[in-house]
C-alpha cells in the first residue's frame, strides 16, 4: 500500500506540473500578443513623429510667404504658425510620454518573462527529481517481487525435498509435516489473495491515471482550439481597426490637401489685392515709404518676439520631457529593485531544497519502518506457530508416555495394522507426488500467464504510445515535452531581446536627431539675435547719415545762395542786407524736408554770371549733386529693403574714398549680407521692380517706385506695357566678375547691396 500511495502522489505531482506548464505557455502567448500590440503602437507613434517633423520643417516657408503679404497677412500667418507649432509640440510631448510608458511596459514584460523562465526551470528540476524517485520506487518494487518469487521457490523446493525424502518418516514426522503443509497452504492462500488485491489495485490506479491523462490531453486540445479561435478573432479585429484608421487617415489627408489648396487660393487672392493696392499707392510714394519702414520694423520686432517665445517654449518643453524621462526612469528602477529584493527574500531555493530532502528522508525512513514492521509481523507469526507446535508436541509426548503402556498391548494390533498403514502411506505418497506435480504445473502456468500478461500490457502501452505519437505528428504537435517548451521559450525570449535592442537603438537615433534639431534651433535663434542687432545698427547709421546729409545740404545750399547773392550785389552795386528769405522749395506743409537738386537752368542770369564762375565752384557744385544723388539712391534702397552698392554715372572713381558716414566701414567686409541671411531662412520669392514716370517738382522726371511682383506670365505681359522698367536678378559669384568687365554705365553689384531703380534726369 505504501508503494501505491507513493505512485499516486508522484502521478498527482506530475499532473500538477503539466497544468503549471500549460498555464505558463498561455501566459507567454498572452505576453507575445501584448508585445505585438506594443510594437504596432510604437510604429504608429513613429509615423506621427515623422509627420510632425515634416510639418515643423514646412513651417518657416509659410511664415516667409505670409510676411510678404503685408502687416495683416503676416499677423495671420504668424498666428497660424504659432498654433501649428503648439500642436506639434503637444503631439511630441504625448509621443514621448507614450514611448516612456511603452518602454516601462516592455521592461515589465521582460521581468515577467524571466520569472516565468525561472519557474519553468524549477518545475523541470522538480519533475526530473520526481521521475528519479519514481524509477527508484519501481526498482524497489521489482526487487520485492523478485524476493517474493525466490522465497516461494525456495519453500517449494524444501517442500518437494521433504516429500521425496519422506518415505521412511515416522508417525510424528508425518503429523508434523502435515501440520506444516496445512499452515503453508494457508500462507499461500493469503499471499495469493494479497497478490490479487495488489494487482486489482494497481490496475485500478493505472486506469485512473490513463483516464486523467486522456482528460488532460482533451483539455489541452480544447484550450488550443479556443486560443486559435481567439487569435483569429483578434486578427480580424486588428484588420478592421487598421482599415478604419487607414480610411480616417485618407480622409484627413484629403481634408488637409483641400485646406492647403484653399489656403493657396486665398494667398493668391490676397496677393492680387495687394498688387492692386500697390499700384494704387504709386502716386503717394513719400507717405508709403514712411509707412513701409514702420511696418517693416514692427514685423521684424514681432517676428523676433515670436522666434524668441517659440525657442523658449521649445526649451521648456525639452526640459520638461527630460525631467519626466528621468523621473519615470528613477521610479521604474526603484520599482524594479523593490521587486528584485522581494523575489530574493521570498524565494529561498536552499531552504526549499533542504525541506524537500528532509521530506524525502522521512518518506524513506517510513518505508524502511514499514518493511521492518512487516518482517517483524512475519517473524512473530512464525515464532507463535513454532511455539504452538512445540506445546502441541509436548502434550503429545505426555500422552505418548501415558500410552506407552497401552502401546505394548497394542503392538500386536499395530503389527497387524502396519501393513495397512504402509499401504495407506504409499497411497498418500503417491497422492502427494501427484499434488506436488500439479502445484508445480500450476505455478509454471501462472508464471507463464503473468509473463504473457506483462508482455501484452507492455505491447499494448507501446502501441498506444505509437498511436498517440502518430496522431500528434499528423496534427503537427508531436514535440510537446517540457524541454522543447523551454527551448521555444528561450528562442522567443532571444527574439524579444533582439527586437527590444532594435527599438532601443532606434530610440537613441531619434534622441540624437532631436538633439541636433535643438542645436540648430539655438543656432537660428543666435542668428536672429545677430540680425536684429545688425538691423538696429544699420538703422542708427542710416538716421545719422540722413541727419548729416540734411545738415550738409542745408549748409551748402545756404552758402551757395549767399555767395551768389553777394556776387550779384557786388556786380550790380547793391549792398547786402542781413535778412535773407528762406526759399519756398525747402518748405513742405507736412513738415518734411524735401531735397531739391538744383539744375543749371534753374539759376537766373542776374544771380550768377557765367564769367565769374570758377573751376572750384563747379567742382563743389558737382560734388553736391553727387552727394544728393547718392542720398536719394540710399533712401530708396532703405525704403525697399534692397541694399546694394551703386555706381553713379558721371561720378569720379575717387568718390568712394571721400570720408563721411556714407562710406563702407571695414566691419561690413567681415559680416554677411542681411538680405542674403534672411533669404537663407525664409526663402522669399523673386522680387520685381516696376515704376511709372511722373513729373518732378523741379521739372525733371520722377524716380521709379519699387514694386514686389511674382514672376508669372501675367505680370511679365503687364511689365512689357510699362516703359522704363528694369528687372534686376541676383547673379552668382562667377557671373559678377564677367558683369564687372562690361561698361561702367550698367549698375555695379557687390556682396551687400543691389540697385533698386534708376534715376532719370532731363538735360
From TrEMBL:
Superkingdom field: Eukaryota
Sorted UniProt keywords: Coiled coil
Organism listed in the record: Synchytrium microbalum
Coiled coil: 7-55, 89-140, 181-226, 357-413
Polar residues: bias regions: 71-88
Chain residue ranges for the region called Disordered: 56-88, 685-763
Compositional bias per record (Basic and acidic residues), positions renumbered to this chain: 713-752
Protein name (Swiss-Prot/TrEMBL): Uncharacterized protein
Amino acid at each position: 500500500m505504501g508503494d501505491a500511495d507513493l505512485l499516486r502522489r508522484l502521478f498527482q505531482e506530475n499532473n500538477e506540473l503539466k497544468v503549471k506548464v500549460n498555464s505558463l505557455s498561455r501566459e507567454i502567448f498572452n505576453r507575445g500578443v501584448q508585445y505585438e500590440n506594443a510594437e504596432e503602437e510604437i510604429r504608429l507613434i513613429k509615423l506621427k513623429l515623422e509627420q510632425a517633423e515634416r510639418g515643423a520643417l514646412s513651417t518657416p516657408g509659410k511664415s516667409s510667404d505670409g510676411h510678404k503679404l503685408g502687416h495683416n497677412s503676416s499677423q495671420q500667418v504668424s498666428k497660424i504658425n504659432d498654433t501649428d507649432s503648439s500642436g506639434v509640440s503637444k503631439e511630441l510631448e504625448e509621443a514621448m510620454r507614450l514611448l516612456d510608458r511603452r518602454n516601462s511596459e516592455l521592461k515589465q514584460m521582460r521581468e515577467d518573462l524571466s520569472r516565468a523562465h525561472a519557474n519553468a526551470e524549477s518545475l523541470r528540476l522538480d519533475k526530473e527529481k520526481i521521475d528519479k524517485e519514481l524509477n527508484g520506487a519501481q526498482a524497489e518494487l521489482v526487487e520485492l517481487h523478485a524476493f517474493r518469487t525466490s522465497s516461494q521457490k525456495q519453500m517449494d523446493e524444501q517442500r518437494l525435498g521433504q516429500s521425496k525424502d519422506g518415505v521412511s518418516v515416522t508417525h510424528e514426522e508425518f503429523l508434523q509435516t502435515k501440520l506444516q503443509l496445512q499452515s503453508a497452504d494457508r500462507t499461500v492462500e493469503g499471499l495469493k489473495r494479497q497478490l490479487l488485491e495488489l494487482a486489482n489495485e494497481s490496475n485500478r490506479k493505472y486506469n485512473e491515471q490513463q483516464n486523467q491523462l486522456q482528460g488532460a490531453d482533451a483539455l489541452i486540445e480544447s484550450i488550443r482550439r479556443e486560443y486559435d479561435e481567439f487569435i483569429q478573432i483578434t486578427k480580424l479585429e486588428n484588420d478592421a481597426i487598421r482599415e478604419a484608421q487607414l480610411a480616417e487617415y485618407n480622409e484627413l489627408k484629403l481634408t488637409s490637401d483641400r485646406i492647403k489648396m484653399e489656403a493657396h487660393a486665398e494667398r493668391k487672392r490676397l496677393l492680387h489685392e495687394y498688387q492692386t493696392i500697390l499700384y494704387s499707392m504709386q502716386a503717394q510714394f513719400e507717405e508709403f515709404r514712411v509707412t513701409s519702414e514702420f511696418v517693416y520694423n514692427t514685423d521684424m520686432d514681432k517676428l523676433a518676439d515670436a522666434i524668441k517665445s517659440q525657442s523658449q517654449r521649445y526649451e521648456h518643453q525639452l526640459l520638461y520631457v527630460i525631467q519626466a524621462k528621468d523621473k519615470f526612469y528613477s521610479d521604474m528602477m526603484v520599482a524594479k529593485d523593490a521587486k528584485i529584493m522581494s523575489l530574493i527574500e521570498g524565494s529561498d531555493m536552499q531552504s526549499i531544497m533542504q525541506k524537500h530532502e528532509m521530506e524525502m528522508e522521512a518518506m524513506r525512513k517510513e518505508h524502511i519502518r514499514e518493511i521492518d514492521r512487516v518482517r517483524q509481523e512475519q517473524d512473530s507469526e512464525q515464532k507463535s506457530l513454532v511455539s504452538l507446535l512445540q506445546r502441541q508436541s509436548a502434550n503429545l509426548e505426555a500422552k505418548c508416555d501415558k500410552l506407552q503402556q497401552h502401546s505394548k498391548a497394542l503392538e500386536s494390533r499395530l503389527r497387524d495394522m502396519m501393513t495397512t498403514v504402509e499401504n495407506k502411506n504409499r497411497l498418500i505418497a503417491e497422492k502427494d507426488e501427484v499434488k506436488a506435480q500439479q502445484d508445480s504445473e500450476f505455478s509454471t502456468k501462472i508464471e507463464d500467464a503473468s509473463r504473457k500478461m506483462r508482455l501484452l500490457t507492455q505491447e499494448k502501452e507501446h502501441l498506444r504510445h505509437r498511436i498517440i505519437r502518430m496522431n500528434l505528428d499528423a496534427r503537427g504537435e508531436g514535440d510537446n515535452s517540457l524541454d522543447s517548451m523551454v527551448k521555444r521559450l528561450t528562442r522567443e525570449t532571444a527574439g524579444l531581446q533582439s527586437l527590444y535592442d532594435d527599438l532601443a537603438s532606434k530610440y537613441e537615433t531619434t534622441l540624437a536627431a532631436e538633439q541636433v534639431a535643438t542645436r540648430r534651433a539655438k543656432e537660428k535663434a543666435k542668428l536672429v539675435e545677430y540680425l536684429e542687432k545688425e538691423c538696429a545698427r544699420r538703422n542708427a547709421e542710416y538716421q545719422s547719415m540722413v541727419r548729416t546729409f540734411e545738415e550738409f545740404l542745408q549748409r551748402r545750399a545756404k552758402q551757395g545762395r549767399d555767395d551768389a547773392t553777394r556776387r550779384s550785389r557786388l556786380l550790380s552795386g547793391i549792398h547786402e542786407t542781413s535778412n535773407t528769405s528762406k526759399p519756398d522749395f525747402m518748405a513742405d506743409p507736412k513738415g518734411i524736408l524735401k531735397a531739391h537738386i538744383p539744375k543749371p537752368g534753374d539759376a537766373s542770369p542776374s544771380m550768377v554770371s557765367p564769367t565769374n564762375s570758377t573751376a572750384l565752384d563747379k567742382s563743389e557744385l558737382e560734388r553736391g549733386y553727387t552727394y544728393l544723388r547718392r542720398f536719394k539712391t540710399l533712401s530708396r534702397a532703405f525704403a525697399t529693403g534692397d541694399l546694394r552698392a551703386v555706381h553713379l554715372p558721371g561720378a569720379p572713381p575717387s568718390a568712394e574714398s571721400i570720408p563721411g558716414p556714407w562710406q563702407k566701414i571695414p566691419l561690413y567686409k567681415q559680416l554677411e549680407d542681411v538680405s542674403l541671411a534672411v533669404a537663407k531662412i525664409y526663402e522669399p520669392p523673386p522680387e520685381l521692380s516696376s515704376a511709372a514716370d511722373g513729373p518732378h517738382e523741379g521739372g525733371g522726371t520722377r524716380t521709379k517706385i519699387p514694386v514686389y511682383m511674382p514672376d508669372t506670365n501675367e505680370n511679365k505681359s503687364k511689365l512689357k506695357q510699362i516703359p522704363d522698367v528694369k528687372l534686376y536678378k541676383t547673379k552668382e559669384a562667377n557671373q559678377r566678375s564677367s558683369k564687372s568687365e562690361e561698361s561702367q554705365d550698367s549698375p555695379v553689384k557687390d556682396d551687400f547691396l543691389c540697385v533698386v531703380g534708376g534715376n532719370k534726369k532731363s538735360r
